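dude i think i finally got it to work??
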Amino acid sequence: MVKFSTGLVVALTAIAVNAVPFEKRIDQTISASTQKWVAACNAAGGGEKCSDISVTAFSTLLAAAGPCDQQNSADAMIDLAKQLNNNADMIKFAQIFAQQPRNTPTSESVPYCQQAPKNAELTGLFQCQFQGAKADTFVGGVAVGGAGTIPFGLSSPVSPPGSCPANPSGPVPDGQQLTDITQDPGLANIKSGSGSAAPPASSAPAASSAAPASSVAPPASTATCAPKTRKRGAMKKRIAQDTVAAATPWEDACTKAGGQDKCNPIAVTAFGTLLAAADPCAQQDSADAMIDLAKQLNNDPDMIRLAQIFAQQPRNTPTSQAVQYCQKAPRNAELQGLFQCQFQSASQDTFVGGVKVGSPGTIPFGLSSPVSPAGSCPANPSGPIPDGQQLVDITQQPRASGSAPSGSSAAPPASGSSAAGGDDSEDGDAADCA
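look at this
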């Protein structure tokens, strides 16, 4: 029998505990970060521009985003606010959004943007950190004082660590939205060393932002949306979902299989493909990437199965019309014959852009006739999916018994000339006031 000394056991335990100290991911429901801004934007008459800017903005909170992407989106929010009579609530919520903590893949703090914002209203603002993030180390193992660890315009580290002007007492509880904590962007808390353009930032928005967000939301469902529904047709209801939930089961299986830091980037890219602005084949491409990694991890069956289900998850639709199908073959044989379901409220005889069934993009690659029942997919052959629901919560099988579609083909990849890729460039969620 091999015996270990007490000292060796203690040392090995310490190594086991401390070998990977920063592997806890801290994330949030990113779509919640722009909800109040969208409500204010709709109330101000921003129409479909509100949703387009919002989708881009909340995606900047993902771990893979660039350090200045969040600030750039806040600038876009303010640009639109200025087009809408300098709407004070839109500016206020853009200022708060610019300070929302970003996801961190390693429980380390997230680097700050190192360039000035375009709009003076954002001068001196930077994101808070989440409470669970290590305050003295930034993503990549960079110590405080290193590049990106001090916000642009400041000459010393943030104090208290993890704070921001809107929450000067310290970091934000993990996963929480700053707009649920405060309605004040904290312009009075901007440090004097944050730049010379600070005074313009504290003028109009601060003085007129006292009205609570709850006073903005109701008009969004009356003054703005009702006229647009009457004027532009009945098919303007946006159908959305918690896109993060669609890739989470696969990421969990990937982590279990030993995928480590390769899992999260693939999952982040994947759930972004369910957004209304994504290309028709982006979802399938992400499912291919999921399977590629599964094959590197001993052909992990759970990863492959969940990738197959993900490939069939309904995509968001900006207009309550069905979403076009990819028109090329997948790279992996495991995905052949699979295509996304549609959500139940989506019109099954008209696709985004007013395209009728039978036209390019309305029949999945490899099939010669429209999907039947309309809105179904191999994993859910009985019909479409309840609005906003995850297919992985309905079934654990990528193909129901007897659901293999006729006409599917193992042919080489198609040319990729899908239905123009213009599936959601027209209307956004102009009439979505929810």
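The first strand starts at residue 108 and ends at 109.
im so relieved honestly
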